[in-house]
Amino acid sequence: MIPLVVVTHGGLAKELVHTVQIIVGTQPALFSVCLEEREGIEDLQRKLLAVLPAPGSDPDGALLLVDMFGGTPSNVSLALSQSRPLRVITGVNLPMLLEALTHRAESTLSALAELVSEKGRRSVFDANELLDRKGNREEGGCGR
Amino acid sequence: MIPLVVVTHGGLAKELVHTVQIIVGTQPALFSVCLEEREGIEDLQRKLLAVLPAPGSDPDGALLLVDMFGGTPSNVSLALSQSRPLRVITGVNLPMLLEALTHRAESTLSALAELVSEKGRRSVFDANELLDRKGNREEGGCGR
Q1: Residue B88, phi then psi, degrees to nearest 5
Q2: Which residues constitute the domain of residue A53?
C-alpha cells in the first residue's frame, strides 16, 4: 500500500486528512505535514522526513499531495523527490485524496499519480452549468 | 466585489480561508461554512444563509466553492442557488481560492466562475513530470 502525505501551508493538510477520515474512517499510512506560520524550509523538510518511508524499506516510495506549485511545501517535496522514489501532485483537494485512498492498494506509484491528477482535474467544475445541461437533456431539449 | 464562500465537510473550509489569509492577508467578504460531524442539512443551510448577501442587496450574488460534487455541502449550496444568484464550483483547492480573490473585484459572477474552474483544473498536475519535461527542454533534448 502506497503511503500518502498531504503537504501544505497552514493547517490545511491536517484538516484534509481529518475530513477524509470523517468520510471513509481512519486510514493507515496517511500523513499530514503542515508548514506553520513561523516555520521555514528546514522545519518542513525535517517534518516530511519523519513520516516518509526509510530508504530501502518496502514500500520505499510515497505519493505527496501538495497545495500549490511554487510554494514551499511543493518546493521542499520536489527537492526530496530528486533522491527518493516520491511523486508530487499539486493542487490537492478532497476528491483527489479520496481517489488516492481508493486506488493505492492495487496501483503502482506512477499509475496512482496519473489517476489522482486526472481525478483532481475532473473534480473541478461549475455545478450549476452541469445541472443546467442535465436539465436540458431531461426535458428533451432542442438538440443544442 | 463578489463575496466568496467556501463550503465543506469538517473544518476544511475554515482552514482554506485561514491559509489563504496567511498568504495574501485578511480579506473582506470571504467566509467559511463547515458541516461539522453531527450536523445535518438544516444546520448547514442556516449557517450558509447567515453569510450570504440578503436578496436585493448589492451585490446580491456570491461564488460558492465546495469540496466535492454530491456531498451535503454541494447539495445544499446547489439547492440555494435555484432561488438566488449563486454559482457553485466543486473541488475547491488553494489555487482556486487565490484566483477568486485576485479577480473578483473586476469580474462578473459568470466570468469569475469560469476563471476559477479553469484555474482549478490547471493547478492539478504531476510536478515531477513537469520538471522532467522542463529538464529535457533545457538540455536541448532529442525532439521527443
Answers
A1: -115, 120
A2: 4-138
Contact B89 A120 (CB under 8 A): no
Q: Give the C-alpha distances (Å, rounded to integers) separating B68 from A95, A96, A127, B42, B71.
A: 6, 10, 10, 19, 6
**Do B6 and B32 form a contact (C-beta atoms < 8 A)?**
yes
Q: Which residues of B touch A87 (CB under 8 A)?
A: 126, 128
User: What is the arithmetic mean of pLDDT over B118-127?
Assistant: 98
Q: Which residue of A has its CA nearest to B111?
A: A126
The answer as to whether A102 is a domain residue is yes
- Considering the domain boundaries, does residue A92 fall inside one? yes
d(CA B141, CA B144): 7
pLDDT tens for A11-48 read 999 999 999 998 899 999 999 999 998 999 999 999 99
DSSP A105: T
- Region of B141 on the Ramachandran plot (φ > 0 left; ψ -120 to 50 alpha; else beta): left
Q: Are the beta carbons of A91 and B92 separated by less than 8 Å?
A: no
Q: Is B19 close to A9, i.e. CB distance below 8 A?
A: yes
User: Can you give the pTM of this predicted structure?
Assistant: 0.93
Neighbours of B70 (CB within 10 A): 12
Is the separation of the CB atoms in B127 and B134 below 8 Å?
no
**Is residue A144 in some structural domain?**
no
Q: What are the CA-CA distances from residue A54 to residues A7, A57, A62, A105, B7 (Å)?
A: 18, 6, 11, 19, 38
Residue A52, all three cell numbers: 516518509
| Of B66, B93, B117, Cβ closest to residue A91 | B93
**Residue from A78, A92, A79 nearest A10 by CA:** A92
Domain with residue A71: its CATH number is 3.40.50.510
Q: Count the neighbouring beta carbons within 10 Å of the beta carbon of residue A65.
A: 29
Q: Specify the DSSP element, H or E, that contains B110.
A: helix B109-123
Asked if residue A105 belongs to a domain, the reply is yes
